[in-house]
Amino acid sequence: VNAMDDSSYAFGSYVQITAIKFEYEENPEFDYLSEEVNEASEFLESIIHIDDFTEDRIEDLVKSPLLKSIQIAEFLPDDVNKKIDSILARRPDISLRFFGFLESDGFGVGLIHQFPSLTRLEIDMNFTEWKSVPDFSGLSKLNLKAIYISMIDYYNLDFIKDLSDGIEEIGVNAYMTSGSVLFDCSWLLKYESLKKLYLEGEVGLNLNVVEDMKNLYELSLTNVPFSYDVLASCKSLRVLTLCDCSLEGIDQISNLDQVEELSLIAIEGLDNVSFINGMDSIKQLTLAQMDSLLELPDFYELSKLKKITLYNIPIDIDTVPSNIRSITTIENE
Fold first, then answer.
1. Average pLDDT rounded to a whole number, residues 180-185
2. I need a labelling partner for 267 at 20 to 30 A (CA). Which of 50, 150, 222, 251 fits?
3. Entry pTM
4. Which of 293, 204, 289 is nearest to 244 (CA)?
5. DSSP string for 292-309
């Protein structure tokens, strides 16, 4: 059974274009099985084989309001790449994601240049087993507005210095199984249009330069070693996410009184969030995965607060202060 026989299929947030035939046999014996079967089915529904990559299917993709990303995990024929590029030309909001690529020979910026209409690029790869890593220099030839990279064992990320001047979003998630990643936040200062910055892993060198990014609207830091005082002067920030960051000094973010959306996730040992009362522009607050947080303050000072989301936090709705109970949602796995 082909996973996507129906050309009227309502696409989800991403699809993968492939030359590999995936088969999924429906079997009543699977009905009782766990989420693994359901997840496999959902995955296959997101696959389009190149034989089914017809003009009608392309039109469906272009018109799908939910579609955010097209994924490639293998080398595809040139005519298929041209079809993908035609979608990107009509939908510049869609990202092209390169994932996996166990065949290293030939992968690199040359392949990426086959998509001249590309404005949003994602690269998600583990290079641990590769004999040699690909060259990503020369990305400035593309008119990128956004780049998000997630890499293991790619040592030198200096290609980040060679992006289009108009880049607005940068995400860097990088780890080495041994040694350290070569990345410097000061490389980003040249991008005056940068609005969103997502950093994860060993990429916090010279993070203090964010205070000089005058148009930086959103900042997300995950497992990045840094001192909170570097955020004190980031007066352009409106959205801040801190995940798996240090507890020490976290109350210093109360000086960011212009932040409107705050997410604190997996801050180990955090048991008191009353410092958030100093952030009087907060409209949305998300607190997640913190076992030490057993109660909320009343947040009376936060007159603009409209939504609180607690995810895997050991707080019962009945213990939430009455003045914020109606705007609080609790979600637990």
1. 94
2. 150
3. 0.88
4. 289
5. T-------TT-TT--EEE
